[in-house]
Amino acid sequence: MIDGKRVLIILPAWMEAEGVAEVIKEVRATLPGADTVVVDDGSPDATSQVALGAGADVLRLPYNLGVGGAMRLGYRYAADNNYDVAIQVDADGQHDPRCVPQLLEKLEHADLVIGARFAGEGDYTVRGPRKWAMTVLATVLSRMARTKLTDVTSGFRACNRDLICQFARTYPMEYLGDTVESTVSAIRAGYSVRQVPVAMRERIAGTPSQSPLRAMMYLLRIGLILVVALGRKVDMQRPSVTTGR
Amino acid sequence: MKLWILTSLTGVVLVLIIAEMLRRRKLKEKYAALWMVTGLLIIPLGFFPRGLDSVAETVGVRSGVSFILFLSVVFLFMVCLQLSWEVGHLEEETRTLAEEIALIRGTSKQASSDPVPPVTAAAVASSAPNPSETGAAS
User: What's the CA dihedral at B59, B61, B64, B68 to 10 degrees?
Assistant: First the structure.
């Protein structure tokens, strides 16, 4: 319990046996009131055993579904177990759990809060096509949400009970769909989305994937995902009851 | 002009394949109707490839044979599209099943509170009920 709310930290993990234990320990130490569930996305390594050993609950998918697939399972778990808030944190340690209280605070006035990496904090920078993609995304989504959203591809996000139930049903599975498309559908369904600046850290284990060709592919895929997400029929509906915000 | 020999033989072979697959229950009933109708259309067109000449003329296609070619491309495109849809649907179903499995496995793990190793074939075999025991019980 944090401020009378049941909070679940969802850690989608694939091949994170090296780093996951440290991340879990840190999360539990900084957020003793929250529960932690690791969604092992069909890792062939010992990710689930390590996570269990570190004291987290573990859901192990029988095969790899991608981050979106792992996250829908996480949200289903949160919905089934009546959590009020679900917070997605990467299992590679790049998200600082000490920023979670800021997300929670912002969630008082929003349905979805994104921990954004470029909003002043930390020294996370990108260049070239990857940066262009980020700029296009930021512009389009900020306009849609009528608020500043500079980093919708961030996997550090918190959402309330309403959205947990929606995401448990419809969280997109496609590559990048998990962050971009889920945010677009939430905005289009009438949910309020806000961001808070967070600092990013070096990954505890594993290497980030960056090469010019990949960055270019990334730009194209972002464009495609954005077009598809904007053109798709809205498959979630915000309940008409106003929650006083 | 030997075109009809080629087309009719192809038509007959295709219909025979469809009929045999249906008979052996290799095609689901929901597709059976589609393929039966396809077969029934293929046979007459195989024997009379120029039979659609007049129809082709009225829609602006000079020869009945090219008209059939056009129709078959449209038909194949639609079949492909339907199969893509079907695959997506199946993926969604297996995704849901995978989630259910993970949820069931997760809760049973918490109940025993011991880290359970991933299920292996040997573990499944050993946990299966012994046939002689069940026989004795009944």
Answer: -80
- Choosing among B87, B90, B91, B99, which should be mutated to test the A contact, i.e. which has the most A CBs within 10 A? B99
At residue B133, the pLDDT reads 42
Q: Give the distance between the most distant pair of CA atoms in chain B.
A: 80
Q: Is residue B87 part of a domain?
A: yes
Distance from CA of B74 to the nearest CA of A (A): 25
Of B99, B106, B118, Cβ closest to residue A72: B99
Over range A158-175, report the average pLDDT: 90
Q: Whole domain around residue B31: which residue ranges? A: 1-49
**Cβ neighbours of B21 (radius 10 Å):** 14
Q: Which chain A residues are Cβ-neighbours of B104 within 8 angstroms?
A: none
Question: Is the overall model pTM greater than 0.80, yes or no?
Answer: no
The 10 Å Cβ neighbour count of residue B81 is 10
Which pLDDT band, with edges at 50, 70 and 90, does B108 fall under?
Answer: low
Report CB contact under 8 Å: A61, B106.
no
Residue B84, classified by CB atoms within 10 Å of its CB into exposed (0-12), middle (13-18) or buried (19+), is exposed
Chain B residues whose CB is inside 8 A of the A53 CB are 115
Phi, psi (rounded to 5 degrees) for A58:
-130, 135
pLDDT band (50, 70, 90) for residue A244: very low
Q: Of A142-156, A176-190, B36-50, where does mean pLDDT reach its minimum?
A: B36-50
Q: What percent of chain B lies above the pLDDT cut of 70? A: 76
Mutate which of A8, A61, A67 to test chain B, going by most B C-beta atoms within 10 A? A61
Total tally of structural domains belonging to chain B: 2
Asked whether residue B119 is assigned to any structural domain, the reply reads no
Q: Does domain A7-231 have CATH number 3.90.550.10?
A: yes
Q: Is the residue at B86 inside a domain?
A: yes
